[in-house]
């Protein structure tokens, strides 16, 4: 790449995988814009491209390779930077990019890119990558789930100091974000390495936000939902939506996965959160076809879906991930059975979601607007229902307003604005 001499450096960011990856790229975008770079959408031509990769499954690695080839075709002369979990999980595997940064070195990417830009370029406004602000508060994982390689790619759990989190949240609110999403690879472990805990952080952020914004937790395991967090579920500025990965409703499978909770604990936590706030919604991840899963195990997961009542469920079939203990198992579920179980689980979560949407009708919801078009606005309720409404005065991307859910249209609510 030859650095431009007559204009700012154009940088395009591509994000694969989790919300933590997205939060990291949003932070990078702000640093590059402040340094004088023009941060542009992936679809536009760029001088530098940064790809933040994912390795949660073998397919995620394949997607990373595919995206590298696509970006090369789009901009053959661009300087291509690769980072993220696929780098750490596959050392030496990527030789068609120009620069590689392991997860632990991500903070150096901004300096690396800015060294290619013209000296003295004026700062730009950071691009609005999403209407909701994703704030990374924790990285790494100390768990050893037998199907997962992310803990190897991300390292041990590490928390970001509350003072830094406060600064980032205030900056996001000042930039016009009405919803703050707290992200972490293992969010529930926040603070254990620095003498505090997630509930303390959330409580302080709720005080900090006041009426200007609301807080949402990206994902948390059931065994990390403490009594203090359950009590906070009654707070009006904490979104009444909990993404609690289930994976399986069978204790036999949960033990084989090395998950930190069992079926009864998961159900107890869900009930306790709903006792504090009856409008609480749950979303989840469910893995079918894990080695050794029987038809009884599958039935146990189906029954738990009905018992908890999920708004949404991300259902996926287990696939062997090289480097994980589960990949060495010979007790595998045959492909036709795994596909059938996946279809049955998807139908169960769809039925459960339809019940949750129907129950949300007639209620007033606070809505964070994700996209605002000429006549229609799209957003999310605090409970994570997708919403559409006719655009009204004062509705803006990233802002909050109240609406009454009138009808269910497909997988979303049709709302009437109240203010």
Can you describe what's shown?
With 419 residues, the protein is of the alpha/beta class. Strand 3, helix 2 and strand 4 form a beta-alpha-beta unit. Helix 6 packs parallel to helix 7 and helix 11 packs parallel to helix 12. The model has no long low-confidence stretch (mean pLDDT 94).
Describe the structure using short key phrases:
alpha/beta; single chain; 5-stranded mixed beta barrel; 17 strands; globular; 5-stranded parallel sheet
Secondary-structure blueprint:
Blueprint: E1 10-15, H1 19-34, E2 38-40, E3 48-53, H2 58-74, E4 79-84, H3 85-89, E5 99-101, H4 109-114, E6 133-139, H5 150-154, E7 158-159, H6 162-174, E8 179-184, H7 198-209, E9 214-217, H8 227-232, E10 241-243, H9 251-257, H10 263-276, E11 281-288, H11 295-308, E12 312-317, H12 335-360, E13 364-372, E14 376-381, E15 386-390, E16 400-409, E17 412-417
Parallel strand pairs: 1-2, 1-3, 3-4, 4-5, 6-8, 8-9, 10-11, 11-12, 15-17
Antiparallel strand pairs: 6-7, 13-14, 13-16, 14-15, 16-17
Helix pairs in contact: 6-7, 11-12
Give a nutshell description of this structure.
The protein has 12 helices and 17 strands.
Query: What percent of the residues sit in helical stretches (DSSP H or I)?
Result: 25-40%
> What composes the largest sheet?
5 strands, parallel
What spatial form do the alpha-carbon principal axes imply? globular
Report the average pLDDT across residues: 94
- Number of DSSP helical runs: 12
Structural class by sheet pairing and helices: alpha/beta
- Order of SSEs: EHEEHEHEHEHEHEHEHEHHEHEHEEEEE
Strand content: 15-25%
CA(first)-CA(last) distance: 51 Å
Strand arrangement across the biggest beta sheet = 2-1-3-4-5
Please give the number of β-strands. Answer: 17
Radius of gyration over C-alpha positions, nearest whole angstrom: 22 Å
**Which segments are poorly predicted (pLDDT under 50) over 5 or more consecutive residues?**
none
């Amino acid at each position: 790449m030859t650095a431009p001499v007559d204009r700012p450096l154009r940088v395009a960011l591509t994000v694969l995988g989790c919300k933590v990856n997205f939060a990291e790229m949003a932070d990078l975008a702000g640093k590059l814009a402040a340094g004088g770079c023009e941060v542009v959408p992936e679809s536009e031509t760029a001088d530098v491209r940064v790809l933040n990769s994912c390795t949660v499954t073998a397919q995620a690695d394949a997607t990373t390779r595919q995206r590298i080839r696509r970006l090369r075709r789009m901009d053959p002369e661009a300087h291509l930077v690769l980072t993220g979990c696929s780098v750490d999980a596959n050392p030496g595997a990527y030789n068609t990019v120009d620069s590689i940064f392991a997860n632990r070195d991500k903070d150096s990417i901004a300096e690396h890119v800015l060294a290619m830009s013209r000296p003295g370029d004026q700062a730009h406004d950071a691009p609005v990558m999403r209407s909701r602000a994703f704030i990374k508060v924790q990285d790494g994982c100390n768990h050893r789930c037998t199907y997962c390689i992310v803990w190897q790619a991300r390292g041990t759990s590490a928390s970001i100091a509350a003072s830094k989190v406060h600064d980032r949240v205030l900056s996001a609110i000042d930039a016009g974000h009405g919803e703050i999403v707290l992200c972490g690879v293992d969010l529930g472990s926040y603070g254990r390495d620095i003498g505090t805990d997630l509930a303390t952080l959330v409580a302080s952020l709720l005080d900090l936000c006041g009426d200007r914004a609301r807080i949402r937790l990206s994902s948390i395991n059931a065994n990390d939902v403490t009594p203090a967090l359950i009590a906070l579920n009654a707070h009006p500025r904490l979104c009444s939506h909990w993404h609690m990965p289930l994976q399986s409703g069978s204790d036999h499978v949960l033990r084989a996965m090395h998950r930190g909770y069992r079926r009864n604990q998961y159900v107890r936590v869900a009930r306790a959160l709903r006792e504090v706030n009856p409008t609480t919604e749950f979303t989840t991840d469910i893995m079918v076809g894990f080695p050794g899963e029987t038809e009884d195990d599958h039935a146990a997961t189906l029954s738990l879906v009905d018992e908890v009542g999920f708004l949404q469920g991300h259902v996926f079939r287990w696939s062997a991930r090289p480097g994980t203990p589960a990949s060495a198992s010979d007790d595998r579920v045959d492909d036709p059975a795994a596909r059938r179980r996946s279809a049955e689980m998807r139908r169960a979560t769809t039925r459960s979601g339809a019940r949750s949407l129907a129950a949300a009708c007639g209620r007033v919801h606070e809505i964070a607007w994700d996209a605002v078009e000429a006549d229609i606005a799209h957003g999310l309720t605090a409970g994570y229902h997708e919403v559409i409404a006719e655009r009204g005065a004062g509705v803006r991307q990233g802002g909050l307003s109240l609406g009454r859910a009138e009808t269910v249209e497909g997988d979303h609510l049709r709302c009437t604005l109240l203010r």
